[in-house]
Each structure stands twice: as C-alpha cells, then as structure tokens.
Amino acid sequence: MSETLQAGRATLEAAVRGEVHWHGGPGYEQARLDSVWNARKPAAYPAVIVIAADDRDVAAAVDHAREHGLKVTVRSGGHSWYGIHLRGDCLLLDLSRLRGITVDPQARTAAVGSGVVGLEVYEALAEHDLFFPVGHGPDVGLAGFLLGGGYGWNSGHLGPACFSIAAVDVVTAAGEFLYCDETQNTDFLWAARGGGHGQFAVITRFHLRLYRPPGAIVRSVQVYPKDMAGEVTRWMTEVGPKLEDRVEFIAMVTPPPIPGFEGAATITSATVFADSFEEAVALLAPFEDTPFAGRELLRVSYDRTDMHSMGREVERETPKGRRYICDNIWTRASAEEITPLIQQAADTMPNPECQIFWYWWGADRTAPHAAWSAQAPWYYAVYGIGADPALDAAHDAWVAGSIAAVAHLSAGTQFADSNLAGRFDGPLRAPQLAEMDRLRARHDPAGVFPGYPGVSGS
Ligand SMILES: Cc1cc2nc3c(=O)[nH]c(=O)nc-3n(C[C@H](O)[C@H](O)[C@H](O)COP(=O)(O)OP(=O)(O)OC[C@H]3O[C@@H](n4cnc5c(N)ncnc54)[C@H](O)[C@@H]3O)c2cc1C
Fold this sequence. Notes:
Bound molecules: flavin-adenine dinucleotide
CATH class of the largest domain: Alpha Beta
Oligomer: single chain
C-alpha cells in the first residue's frame, strides 16, 4: 500500500467515531452481509464500509471518498431488494445508526434520522397521537422508502409519503452540511421527494409533516382459490375506482392465513383509515358486494385492526431470511388486457411462497416540488420468494417472464421493488430524469455519487 493511501486510511479512522471496515479486514464481511436485508446477497465488495455514528462521520467519509477516487454508496435500512449499495469501487456509508427521532407535537413535525425504520416512527408518533404513512413492512428503512416515493399505509389518501417531507439535512459531495427546504437549497429537497436511488448528496435527516391518526382502521378480507386470480383482479378493476381514497385495496396471490392450507390462494383485502367504525363500514360497502358469494375459502368482514397487527401480517407474508427477487410495473391497462396475464403468472408460480400484487393506488396526482412522477393508478408486482438457493434460477425466470408479458402495458416502474441495473423502465418521467441528471452534474461535478444503476451517463 502506498504511503499516501496508508495516511488516508489513518485519517479516516481517526475522524470516524463509528466503525471503519476495510475490504479483507476483520468485521468487513459481517458488515457487508448485514447491510442487505434480502438473503440473496450481491457478490460485490466495497473498498471500505463506514458505519457512521453521526453527521460528522458522514462528512468525513464523503471527504475520504472524494479525495481517493471512490464512489459513495449509501445504505439506510438496507431493505432494497437488490442491495445496490454493494459495488466494487465504492465507499459504503451505512447510516443504520442515525436513529434519532424528535417530535414537535404543536408544529406536527418530526425530525427523523436516516437509519430509522417505519415501526420506530409509528411508535414514536403514537405517543403524541400523530400519524405518518410509513411503509407496510415495519422494519423497512424510512430513508429508502421516502426516496422511492413511499407507498405506505393510507398513502392513497395522504399521498406518497415523499410528499410529506418538509425538509432534509444533507451532506453534499463537497462534504458540506446543508438544510434544504422549499426556500433554500431547494434542489436537494426536490430530489429527495421521490428521486429514488440517484441522489447527489447523503441525506442524514428527514423533517416530516405529520397527520392526525385515523379514528378506526378496519379491514375486510376475502380468500379465493388461486385459479380465480384473473377473475378476482378483473372485478377489482371495476370496484377500485368506486372506492374512497382512504380505502387501500389490494389482491395478492400468496399463501393465505388459513391454518393447514397448502399452496397459494388469491387474497383480496380492503383496509380503511376512517374517522369511526361506522364510517369504515360504509366505506367498505362496495368491497363487500362481490359477485363471488359462496366461492370464498375464507371471508372476514369489518375486522377492527391496528398498525402493529397489520405489520405482523406483512412480516408473515415477507419473512426475513428468504431469498427474494422482484420486479413491477405501474399501469393504466384495462382489465381485458392485464387480468389474463395475472392469471398466467399465478398459474406458472414456481413455488407457493412466491407472490403477485395487484394494487389500486387511485387517480393521477399532482406532485408538489418533487422529482416523483411515475405513478399510475394500478401497480403490478411479482416476487420470487424461497429459502433454497436452488430455486433462484426458476424465480428469476418466472419474474422476468411475468414482467416481459406485461411490458407493453407499463407506465413505468416503482423504485421500491425494482432492479434498475437489470431493467431501467422509467422510475421517473423523462423530464424529471433529465432534471436529476442536470442537478447531479451541478451539485456533484466530480461524480462522487454513482447516480442511477443501469443508466449510462448518469
Ligand atoms: C419486506 C419489505 C416491505 C416493503 N414495503 C414497502 C412499502 O410498503 N412501500 C414501499 O414504498 N416500499 C416498500 N418496500 C420497498 C422499500 O421501500 C425499498 O426497498 C426502500 O429502498 C427501503 O429503504 P431502506 O432505507 O431500507 O433501503 P436501502 O437499501 O438502505 O436504500 C435503498 C437505496 O436508496 C438510496 N438511499 C438510501 N438511503 C439514502 C440516504 N440517506 N441518502 C441518499 N441515498 C439513500 C441508496 O441508493 C440505496 O441503495 C418494502 C421492502 C421490503 C423488503
């Protein structure tokens, strides 16, 4: 190792109060593996991993990377399915220890560190009788969730969660600390609101606008045989537009919560965030009026629930320790066009643990000052899920084939469930994507941050 490189290493180690793990050194491999929630870990090896204890560690790491020609990749909650923060020529900044949450109940705002996960936000806010549309998986990192748009609980009504970012604290490519809101350093806030994995700064803290919690969360669920997936999703495309935006409406093909049931089934559920139980019952009426009476494997109507119970259900559906691969499209397709293809995906699922999502996200929206731009009313996603590495190839082929079959119906992808390095299909509209590139060139001229995976020139 050259003397300059050695001196650089010593300077970084002296500056950082958290942990520094060099490739090949003790603790490195564990830190690398722990940084990815998915049990499928990319075979990519950062030059160094810095687990930051605070904002100053972040700046020290960015300075080191800039001075030594390394790209900076960032990991907050580590839930991105593809672990794209792992790459060979980089300094990986692990922000999982930036876990502060400060709530101002009067102003209805919270300052939340980038290492915080959804459940922690929900619990901190519940103490103040406040609410934020956190992600469905309780341990999903808030940072990546917000950057990807943020399709959380009651987002149909409150908007993608990124609309509720009031400001961000960032460390720039030059290692400067900036507070960014709609009046100052506005480019960074614009990018944080849904600009996804192509940020041109490290966001260390999000300042969030908060909401009053719903008076009642009530859910109705119906379970049908797997071979009804096309029929059920077809019915959904008629019902979805009739529902108020406080009703979250999804169909999934996945193992049902029926003790002893073997295999996958078609589950459709409607969850309403209402002012009262009585109002919830009224809002769920179109969902309860199905044409499938008598064909249900299970039917639960008007079940009062809460955020913890719903979080546990998501953990049952997407357990940690499994090997995941997924892909998705936003779509405006008609029922005739897409529902036979959903049935086809259900018929060819390589194992019953895999999943299909068909989600109603409602009418088109007008974004605030935001990079966010790709949403369409319907969201279709497929997940290859299993414990056995021998199933990976079959899952990869099924996910690729299912998405290829609907590619002509795509209105873009959602960052959250995408492998942008493998298939880059408009996670932002073209003008917003071009603006992200223009801002990256302005705020990160040396290319300290890698930009979007899979896009040349970014
Ligand atoms: C079980 C499960 C459930 C999920 N449920 C939902 C859901 O309900 N709704 C939804 O929208 N998504 C959901 N997702 C997807 C999830 O939002 C994304 O995977 C998101 O990226 C996770 O955020 P993270 O901080 O954990 O990710 P990370 O893997 O830490 O980050 C993802 C990428 O974002 C960028 N990034 C992260 N933090 C920063 C930062 N501080 N500064 C700059 N760039 C940064 C980096 O490019 C990084 O590679 C779910 C994922 C899983 C695994």
